[in-house]
Amino acid sequence: MPKAWIRERKSEFYYKKAKAENYRSRSTYKLVQANEKYNFIRLRNVVVDLGAAPGGWIQAARKITGRHGFVLGVDLKPIEPFPQDYIRTIVGDLTDPTITEQILSFLPRKPDTVISDAAPNITGVWEVDHARQIDLATKALEVTLQILRPNGNFFVKLFQGDLMDEFVQTVKENFTEVKFVKPAASRAKSSEMYLLALGLKTKIEE
Questions:
Q1: Is-above-0.70 flag for pTM?
Q2: 3-state DSSP assignment of residue 36
Q3: Strands, sheet with 87-91, edge to edge from the N-terminal-most edge strand
Q4: Which of 17, 63, 77, 157 is labelled catalytic?
């Protein structure tokens, strides 16, 4: 990893802020800022964080939901545990057919919101990185549609590109309101953005 890139990152405002405030990642502020504007996570909510390592979004969600809420983090890698009994983390693969059962078994009830800041290992080849990001977002959506309560919310990272439109259309078919979000903590030059989907539609039995 280039030393110049590391120096730039460490001198960056939100990186310093996260260190000072004992957050595990600068991305914590992306979720905080988005939620301050759109209020899709609330006090006492149950939240599932897909691709949660190292735990910055778990920390943000915990502060919003409070001690009467519940936050579950899921990642391929182990996440350093939290002391609070209303935060749990599990090692899980979004492609595992049993993952939804695993997630639901840890929750007090179906989640109010599912969030995902998962990102692929960046290759530097844009087409590859974009395709991998859409694949991750698609897996997160598939899990969300199986575990989320009716009228629940979904917040997911995307990379801009030609595969995004089809993904967004699928989300729109399942939620009543969909919008793009670019938090201030997201680097201006970055192609990342977030998709916020509000109000999971109830399936009507035929």
A1: yes
A2: helix
A3: 87-91, 70-75, 46-50, 113-116, 153-159, 192-200, 175-181
A4: 157
